């Protein structure tokens, strides 16, 4: 189940080996297109990658810290550090290819 992030749990929830943070907002149309893709990816990568969401409206300081200028934006965290950022809507197959490459980099 996707974890909803906020100021209180952001650091602890992104501390694992690999975490994807979906920066989104309820009013964002493209974010609504990404949400079902993220759910499918979460099932496929269960136990390998943690999937989380951060509402940028409620957590503007965190969005600024990671220089999220537009949404949807996915930030890949490794051991608590944001290492890569992908902005926009991508098809599931392209995100799978990206995540498979990231898992292979270990």
Automatic annotation (TrEMBL):
**Active site feature:** 28, 31
Keyword annotations for this protein? Disulfide bond, Electron transport, Redox-active center, Transport
Q: Name one GO molecular function term.
A: protein-disulfide reductase activity
Spell out the residues of the site Contributes to redox potential value: 29-30
Report domain Thioredoxin positions: 1-104
Provide one Gene Ontology cellular component: cytoplasm
Full protein name: Thioredoxin
Organism equals Fructilactobacillus fructivorans
């Amino acid at each position: 189940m996707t974890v909803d992030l906020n100021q209180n749990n952001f650091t602890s929830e992104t501390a694992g080996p690999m975490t994807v943070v979906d920066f989104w907002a309820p009013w964002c149309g493209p974010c609504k297109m990404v949400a079902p893709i993220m759910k499918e990816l979460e099932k496929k990568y269960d136990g390998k990658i943690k999937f989380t969401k951060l509402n940028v409206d409620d957590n503007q300081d965190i969005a600024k810290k990671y220089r999220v200028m537009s949404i949807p934006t996915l930030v890949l965290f490794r051991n608590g550090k944001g290492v890569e950022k992908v902005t926009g809507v991508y098809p599931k197959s392209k995100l799978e290819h990206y995540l498979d490459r990231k898992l292979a980099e270990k």
